[in-house]
Design goal:
Helix content of chain B: over 70%
Number of domains of chain B: 1
CATH class of the largest domain in chain A: Alpha Beta
Largest interface: A-B, 35 and 31 residues
Number of strands of chain B: 2
Number of helices of chain B: 10
CATH topology of the largest domain in chain A: Rossmann fold
Radius of gyration of chain A: 23 Å
Helix content of chain A: 25-40%
CATH architecture of the largest domain in chain A: 3-Layer(aba) Sandwich
Strand order of the largest sheet of chain B: 1-2
CATH superfamily of the largest domain in chain A: P-loop containing nucleotide triphosphate hydrolases
Number of strands of chain A: 13
Order of helices and strands of chain B: HHEHHHEHHHHH
Order of helices and strands of chain A: EEEHEEHHHEHEHEEHEHEEHEHH
Number of helices of chain A: 11
Distance between the termini of chain B: 26 Å
Shape of chain B: globular
Mean pLDDT of chain B: 92
Strand order of the largest sheet of chain A: 5-6-7-3-8-9
Oligomer: heterodimer
Chain lengths: 304, 265
């Protein structure tokens, strides 16, 4: 469990993380979304105690990171896969981490096997492809068999097989009851992986809700109705305060009401329906709507 | 248990030190430089004596080793510097701090690895250099001025090791504070060699007094160097030389800790 309480980080006047309060719960994959520069990586560094917060706290199981004994055995994190000495082998990197936290040496071979890097681990880390570096970073995160895992853009650099592998790994880690907090730019990927979403923009919390709710709340999630009496029905729906569009002669797209409610209204009016279905927004669409006002660089340029 | 965690951090630093090639290159370079420069310096002194220049007093094989140490120190300084600056450069410091979030413990662990390794490097390479100097220069060809009094040579070598350990930990402290390799090397070179020589050359009373308390002359006083550089120059004992060395080391480590503790990684 990760708990943020009024977490703030400023560089000079510029707030990078601005009064962030949320809980990341065990047993779920929590997707962490936001435009570039929204403060995702900074938030993760604050949780790990790498950066010092300007105000507020970031706690793991109720304590700050630096108070955890042998922290790699409680929290595993992949921040920047390339952030290790390019001349050291992946194997030696993991051995040093294991020694530093009293982790059994056999875990090194185990996690290398898990990420499929057993052979490449003897090579200099600088000679690994980005995808392999990501696997090594994931191996380092898994090393201490931690109950809390954080991944910053873990699918970057993977081939399609690798992307699918990362997705299954996140899923299975959460299914084992672990807390999985993962940031990504790839909405289609998040839609397949995450149970819960935290969306931030310019350091502020925009949304903290289950994936299904984020999608349901989008204006692009609508009820599509096909009926020979479209004109009649649209009047009735409008009267009930439902937003209605008429893309075609016999078609209505209604937003702001549940499908059951629209079905009931049609039934009460005795209007025959040929089709009644929900058209779900994609996470991509829902996300764009949420963050449209806070795209960091777009907003800046507009002011120039 | 705090000491247990420090021990683990030391183990991690030990693994990291020996798993990069630069460590081996620096140590091999230091050993070669030690032997070659001790032989050259000893040969020069012996030849001068042979030709009737300067006092013709026999000297122990460890004496040119002490002078050579002033050159060799920079090879080991480079190694000590890399222990921290390579982590800043690559971002590996974040991985280190994830494993060991108590920042003072990170510096302590690095110092506890660097100090004994540099001590051993100094004693061993100095020992080899002294043996080579004695084997090559104690012959009649060089006038037989080079001697090998075991106790005196042993003490000299141990002091060479301590001196190299201390300047290396000083470098570690500076590197932790400065972060970049180029900046660290500049600062360390100025403190170890540049400033004391410049201050000495100013000839002003204050300049000379300060210079004599900097690691170069404090080190020579501690190691008992009697070479031309310091003949009759240093007005204090070997013990006081060690005290000044320790003070410089403590100041550098304190500066490194102050920076590492406050800054974002």
């Amino acid at each position: 469990m990760i708990t943020l309480n009024g977490l703030c980080k400023r560089y000079g006047d510029r707030p990078v993380v601005d009064d962030l309060s949320l809980e990341v719960r065990p047993g779920t994959v929590t997707g962490f979304l936001g435009p570039n520069g929204a403060g995702k990586s900074t938030t993760m560094r604050l949780i790990l105690g790498l950066d010092h917060p300007t105000a507020g706290t970031a706690l793991i199981n109720g304590v700050p990171y630096h108070r955890i004994r042998n922290p790699l055995r409680t929290v595993g994190a992949l921040l920047d896969a390339r952030a290790l000495h390019p001349g050291r082998s992946g194997h030696a990197h993991l051995v040093a981490l294991a020694r530093g936290n009293g982790i059994a040496r056999r875990r090194v071979a185990e996690v290398l096997e898990t990420v499929g890097l057993t052979d490449a681990a003897r090579k200099r880390a600088g000679a690994l492809s980005l995808g392999m570096s990501q696997r090594l970073g994931i191996a380092a995160a898994l090393l201490g068999d931690p109950e809390v895992l954080m991944f910053d853009e873990p699918v970057n650099g993977h081939d399609p097989d690798g992307v699918r592998w990362v997705r299954h790994l996140m899923r299975s880690l959460a299914d084992e009851g672990r807390t999985v907090f993962v940031s990504s730019h790839l909405m289609s990927e998040m839609q397949l992986t995450a149970d819960h979403l935290v969306v931030i923009g310019r350091g502020r919390l925009i949304m903290d809700a289950p994936l299904t709710e984020v999608i349901a709340r989008s204006s692009l999630t609508a009820v599509v109705v096909r009926t020979p009496h479209a004109g009649d029905l649209s009047v009735r729906l409008s009267a009930a305060g439902i937003r209605v569009e008429r893309p075609g002669e016999n078609e209505i797209v209604a937003t702001g009401a549940a499908i059951e409610h629209i079905g009931d209204l049609a039934y009460e009016a005795g209007i025959r329906l040929h089709e009644l279905r929900t058209r779900e927004a994609s996470l991509e669409q829902a996300y764009q709507e949420l963050t449209a006002s806070s795209v960091e660089y777009g907003a800046r340029k507009a002011g120039v | 248990m705090r000491t247990g965690e420090l021990g683990q951090a030391v183990g991690a630093e030990w693994s990291k030190l020996w798993s990069v090639r630069s460590t081996w290159w620096c140590l091999a370079g230091a050993a070669v430089l030690m032997v070659v420069s001790a032989l050259t310096l000893g040969g020069s002194t012996a030849t001068d004596m042979l030709h009737g220049r300067g006092a013709q007093t026999p000297f122990p094989a460890s004496q040119p080793v002490i002078t050579a140490t002033l050159f060799v120190q920079f090879t080991l300084v480079a190694l000590a510097m890399l222990v921290i600056t390579s982590e800043y450069a690559s971002g590996g410091i974040r991985s280190t701090l994830q494993a060991t979030p108590i920042r003072g413990r990170v510096i302590a662990a690095k110092a506890l690895v660097v100090a004994p390794v540099m001590f051993a490097a100094g004693v061993l390479s100095g020992g080899v250099a002294a043996a080579v100097v004695y084997a090559a220069l104690s012959t009649d060809l060089f006038g037989g001025y080079v001697t090998l009094p075991p106790a005196e040579v042993a003490v000299d070598l141990l002091r060479v090791g301590v001196f190299l350990a201390l300047v290396s930990v000083t470098t570690l402290g500076v590197g932790t504070a400065v972060r970049s390799a180029a900046g660290t090397l500049t600062v360390v070179f100025m403190v170890l060699m540049g400033l004391p020589l410049m201050l000495l050359m100013t000839g002003s009373q204050v300049g000379v007094e300060v210079s004599l308390r900097m690691p170069l002359f404090a080190g020579l006083a501690f190691m008992g160097g009697t070479g031309d550089l310091t003949a009759g120059l240093i007005p204090y004992s070997a013990g006081e030389g060690l005290a000044w060395l320790l003070a410089w080391t403590a100041a550098a480590v304190a500066a490194g800790y102050a920076v590492l503790r406050r800054r974002d990684a």
